[in-house]
Amino acid sequence: MRRFMIIMTAMAALSATAQTENAARQADEAGAPAATSVHGNRAAAAPLERQQAVQTLKFGYLSYDAALRAMPEYAEAGRQLSELRAKYDAEAKRVETEFNKKYEEFLEGLKDFPQTILQKRQSELQEFLARNIAFKEESSRLLAAAERNVYSPLHDRLAAILRKIGEERGYAFIVNTDNNSCPFISRAVGEDISRAVAEQF
């Protein structure tokens, strides 16, 4: 009798376990369409969210070169560079005149100077020409460096202005329209900030 009771208890436990598993399975099966429905709703909502993100995206645009040239400091920077370039041009002209004079003297002496003097004069002309070429190359390098140094503060200031406007207006970015780099800009999401930038000068 005791053994019979143990067996009946074990069978009852197994039956309860089976019922629990069946109930869980049925719940899962019943819940599967609902879960699929949720995922379907999320999938359907994804394009809507992307569309809303595009609609809230804003950016500014301007001609960077035009803004730079409109800065009051730009004219002064250009004047300084023009003065420096004029000095280098004057020196190059002086050296060229001196070389031409020496070359004419060399041509005139071809019929009168001994061979040794002609060779000496020819060597002098070659050295003079080499120095002149080196001077022109160095002048170009120095002028380019001077231009970078003169305009660097203007670029820094303009960058700070653009950053300030971009942050205040919540822009994702600011587009430079120079060189036809952006043939079309939608005015629905893009804003011309040329006037706003000029007001900061």
List the SSEs and their pairings.
Blueprint: H1 2-56, E1 59-62, H2 64-70, H3 72-108, H4 115-169, E2 173-176, E3 190-192, H5 194-198
What does this molecule look like?
It is a single chain. The protein is rod-shaped. The model is unreliable at 1-18 and 32-40 (pLDDT under 50). It is built from five helices and three strands. It has helices spanning 2-56, 64-70, 72-108, 115-169, 194-198, and strands at residues 59-62, 173-176, 190-192. The chain starts with a helix and ends with a helix. With 201 residues, the chain is mainly α. A three-stranded parallel sheet has the order 2-1-3.
What attributes does this structure have?
mainly alpha; 201 residues; single chain; three-stranded parallel β-sheet; disordered N terminus; 3 strands
